[in-house]
Design goal:
The complex is a heterodimer of chains A (292) and B (586). Chain A is α/β, with parallel strands linked by helices and 292 residues long. Chain A has two domains: 177 residues, Periplasmic binding protein-like II (D-Maltodextrin-Binding Protein, domain 2, 3-Layer(aba) Sandwich); 102 residues, D-Maltodextrin-Binding Protein, domain 2 (3-Layer(aba) Sandwich). Chain A is 35% helix and 22% strand. In chain A, strands 1, 2, 4, 5, 6, 7, 8, 9, 10, 11 and 12 form an eleven-stranded mixed beta sheet that branches. The longest helix of chain A is centred in the N-terminal third of the chain and has 26 residues. Chain B has four helices and 40 strands. Chain B has a four-stranded antiparallel beta sheet. Classes of the chains: A alpha/beta (292), B mainly beta (586). At the A-B interface, strand 3, strand 4, helix 4, strand 8 and helix 5 of A face helix 4 and strand 30 of B.
């Protein structure tokens, strides 16, 4: 779906035309590089089946983006991608990743970026968090990890007594921050922190009383709460004494696609400044807040 | 023989054949070889014909040794390429071809299963198992032959029985849901009439970890299942620091086991907890409740399992609370060895630390250990129990870079060690390198997360000689080093000792070597292949002639060391081929 708002800002329009023209030129000149985007066989180097048969795309008037239905914010990310396409004066081409596999290695997106789209929306911006073959755009929104509970007597993490359990989605930035804080406490002041393989698993641990709190991606919680009445009385509490863990969310692009990244970054800036992205976020009623 | 021209023809041939979809395809000359095929019996598995390679390590004892001696120290210099066969490029295979009655069975990474005339390389039949979208095409380290069938595990967690003579599917048993990440990377062993298969990829979406299953070879029906993560209010179940079962991950069973018919026991390895860093997986800090330990059973252990019932008879854990991805999952060699003046029935194995260890295979008692590659993880080994003291400086911590040797691919990886009863030596491919290890968040995408939540930046061993790859020969009677071959390029195949007094190995830089098994002198080396050789070489005979077969492919494991050897160039499309060598035809 294209974004409902057209860009009227003349400055942005001029920028977009220039970007578009340069984009086309760059694609033309860089096509050989793109076509030969074969991996060197280094560690963590991804693999796409038959990638040596994947040539460059011919239709360069499209903004080919991917969104993933397994991401709770996928529709919101899609709306933002449509707005970015409009800002770049390109025709949006949406590809919804059809996979039903619950958890995948980051290298899986290599094949998707070769074959299906130029950018995948909805990735968290983690410093040094991306391999050499991938690059991230600037953030178009920020979302946080939140502590969730069913207990009515707790308003913040600080109120959870020691030796009570927290179910955290394992290995997230917020989980690592919690573990780091917990380790700094005296033994008798620590909580029990259990890692879970995903947000829903962590939330279900609170539901079945295995843990008092869950530490999950806030969008996941809000989406699950809308779908499943079992979570209707779950609520977000303050992360104090920890600061909130907020992460910027952007898109990821193959490293060699530098011009596209630059163009998207400029479009994100423009659409953030003129309120377009904030309007989309408000309309889609997500936990995400527009990044000023 | 011109390898390049032969290669071109075989690759083209394979490409054309790949256009033929799915079902079995018989050819006239091939039919003759297939007509000679006999069923694989229990007795045959216990005592395989010298000519055959019927299971992953050829024999139940896991030795990986062939008594064939036609190719020997005197004539190996004349060995040459006799035929080759192109497999589907891309992905990984880590293949062990199986050979029975002159028929070779190979599995392409795409799960195209093929039967070849082992004397000529002619295609006899092929069967395509279609992988679902989203499941990467990668092969299996091994398969099994039993009765009239070839038993194959798949990356989408199925076990298949394919008629070995016709290539037609006999049964297809789905064991787990690939959408939750379950997968097989190694095929089964058939013991006492039961197919025993280990599950792997028990990461984020699989709370509770992995398992072994037993299956009826006639139908594929699951007979039993045993979890590789201990459960319940027992000392074993309470060894996970109080972390609930649904919060325990890992313990993958990704290598086939060995079998002792006398005891009717399978000996199989189990991998480490996931994610690797203990501060993240909940095993550190130690739970103050004394009821709990944080050893994380049965990770990094040998399990002794009755294949008929699935009963766990005993276990031995080599490494508790593994926080560095140091898998003690590899092959188990069943060898009777002198220990303190007595002959003991042992299980010999080693994990990524490269410490060779023997336990009693009757009761699991630890007997001895021997270090090989440089390592700084274990600072002491209890001489009675084998319990290891871990150097605290190597345990990954949040916000710190720690230094550990070896790095995660291992001082030895899945490339199997082997044992020759002629020399009583263990032949071990090893690698020397270290890692600057950083614990990092890997939550980039909601579903696209990383694997182990630690980054291993591999670096050379301090003050090393730059020779990363080695082949070591260790006398297991007295645990002495007999010889060692060292070179820059990593050794990337298992070792293959033979009755001809040879040990074959392959390398990342595309060579196959033959060493004198007693001296380590290199007696032969192949021309350069099209790709690195990361697989399990075998030898067999057909029509009275001995062959040595190996599959090329760039894979994971020690192939990751290319990061340390960037000047070793490999082709971008990762070609896979079967190469078969022998003495010149007269």
């Amino acid at each position: 779906m294209p974004a409902t708002r057209s860009l009227r800002d003349v400055t942005i329009w001029k920028q977009s035309v220039c970007l578009f023209a340069t984009f086309i030129l760059m694609l033309a000149f860089s096509s050989e590089v793109f076509a030969q985007a074969e991996p060197e066989f280094y560690n963590d180097q991804p693999y796409a089946p038959n990638e040596w048969n994947i040539g460059r795309r011919m239709d360069q008037s499209e903004f080919r983006y991917c969104i993933d239905q397994r991401d709770p914010s996928w529709e919101q990310d899609g709306a933002i991608a449509d707005a970015l396409a409009q800002g770049l004066l390109l025709q949006p081409q949406r590809y919804v990743i059809p996979s039903e596999i619950e958890a995948e290695d980051l290298t899986k997106i290599y094949a998707i970026l070769l074959e299906k789209c130029d950018i995948i929306m909805g990735f968290k911006l983690i410093p040094s968090g991306y391999p050499a073959w991938l690059t991230a755009t600037r953030a178009y929104k920020e979302i946080g990890y939140s502590f969730i509970t069913q207990r009515t007597d707790i308003k913040s993490l600080a109120e959870l007594p020691p030796l009570r359990a927290i179910a955290a989605t394992g290995g997230t930035t917020a989980h690592i921050r919690l573990v780091s804080y917990n380790l700094s406490q005296p033994v008798d002041k620590r909580w029990l922190v259990y890692p879970y393989g995903g947000d829903q698993l962590a939330l279900s641990a609170v539901l079945n009383k295995t843990a008092d709190l869950a530490l999950v991606w806030e969008s996941s919680f809000l989406t699950l709460q809308q779908k499943d009445p079992a979570y209707s009385d779950f609520r977000i509490i303050s992360s104090a004494p920890l600061p909130p863990t907020l992460l910027g969310v952007g898109g990821v692009i193959l490293k060699q696609n530098t011009f596209l990244r630059s163009a998207v970054d400029q479009a994100i800036t423009a659409l953030s400044n003129d309120g377009t992205i904030k309007a989309i976020l408000n309309k889609t009623k997500s936990a995400a807040a527009g990044k000023p | 023989m011109n390898i390049q021209s032969l290669l071109r023809s075989t690759v083209l041939g394979t490409t054309l054949l790949a256009l033929v979809a799915g079902t079995a395809m018989a050819q006239t000359p091939a039919a003759n070889q297939l007509s000679k095929l006999t069923p694989v019996t229990d007795d045959m598995l216990k005592n395989p014909p010298d000519s055959d390679w019927l299971m992953w390590r050829r024999t139940y004892n896991g030795w990986g040794y062939s008594p064939l001696a036609q190719i020997n120290k005197d004539n190996v210099k004349d060995m040459q390429l006799l035929w080759s066969w192109g497999l589907t490029p891309g992905g990984t295979t880590q293949e062990t071809p199986l050979v029975h009655d002159g028929v070779m069975y190979v599995q392409n990474s795409t799960h195209l299963i093929q039967a070849l005339d082992a004397s000529t390389g002619e295609l006899l039949w092929q069967y395509q198992h279609r992988l679902p979208d989203g499941v990467s095409p990668n092969g299996q380290r091994t398969k099994a032959l039993y009765g009239d069938n070839l038993i194959v595990a798949t990356r989408d967690a199925h076990i298949l029985a394919i008629n070995a003579k016709t290539g037609k599917l006999v049964w297809d048993q789905q064991v787990a849901d690939y959408k939750k990440g379950w997968a097989y990377s190694t095929g089964p062993i058939v013991a006492n009439g039961v197919i025993v298969q280990g599950m792997t990829s028990c990461g984020n979406a699989q709370p509770g970890g992995c398992f072994f299953t037993g299956h009826d070879p006639k139908t594929g029906k699951e007979l039993w299942r045993i979890n590789t993560i201990a459960r319940g209010d027992t000392p074993e179940g309470n060894s996970w620091n109080g972390v609930p079962v649904e919060s325990r991950y890992g313990a993958s069973a990704w290598i086939a086991g060995s079998y002792d018919p006398d005891q009717n026991l399978i000996f199989a390895g189990v991998g480490q907890p996931y994610p690797w860093p203990a501060v993240i997986n909940g095993l550190l800090p130690k739970n103050p409740d004394p009821k709990y330990t944080n050893n994380a059973l049965y990770t990094d252990s040998t399990l002794a399992i009755d294949p008929k019932t699935g009963k766990l008879v005993w276990h031995h854990q080599y490494l508790s609370n593994d926080t560095l991805d140091l898998d003690y999952v590899y092959e188990r060699l069943l060898i009777d060895l002198p220990v303190n003046g007595q002959t003991r029935k042992t299980v010999v194995t080693s994990g990524k630390l490269g410490i060779v260890e023997a336990i009693d295979r009757v009761n699991g008692e630890w007997l001895w250990g021997k270090e090989t590659v440089p390592q700084n993880v274990v600072s002491a080994i209890d001489p009675k129990t084998g319990a290891k003291t871990i150097n605290p400086a190597v345990i990954p911590q949040i916000g710190q870079t720690t230094f550990n040797c070896p790095a995660d691919p291992g001082g030895r990886a899945w490339q199997a060690t082997s044992y020759s009863p002629k020399t009583r030596m263990l032949y071990m491919p090893t690698a020397e390198y270290c890692s600057n290890t950083v614990l990092n968040p890997l939550d980039q995408g909601q579903v696209y997360t990383g694997g182990g939540l630690a980054t291993y930046n591999r670096v050379p061993v301090p003050n090393g000689d730059g020779k990363i790859g080695q082949v070591r020969a260790v006398n297991l009677d007295n645990r002495t080093d007999v010889w060692m071959y060292r070179q820059y390029a990593p050794i990337t195949t298992s070792t293959l000792p033979t009755g001809g007094g040879l040990v074959f190995v392959g390398t990342l830089d595309r060579k196959l070597f033959a060493f004198d098994d007693t001296t380590g002198k290199m007696l032969w080396q192949s021309p350069s292949f099209t790709n690195s050789i990361e697989s399990f070489p075998i030898t067999y005979s057909s029509g009275g002639k001995q062959y040595v077969a190996v599959v090329t492919n760039w894979s994971s494991g020690l192939g990751r060391l290319k990061l340390l050897t960037p000047d070793i160039a490999l082709p971008a499309h990762n070609p896979h081929e079967v190469y078969v060598f022998g003495l010149p035809n007269k």
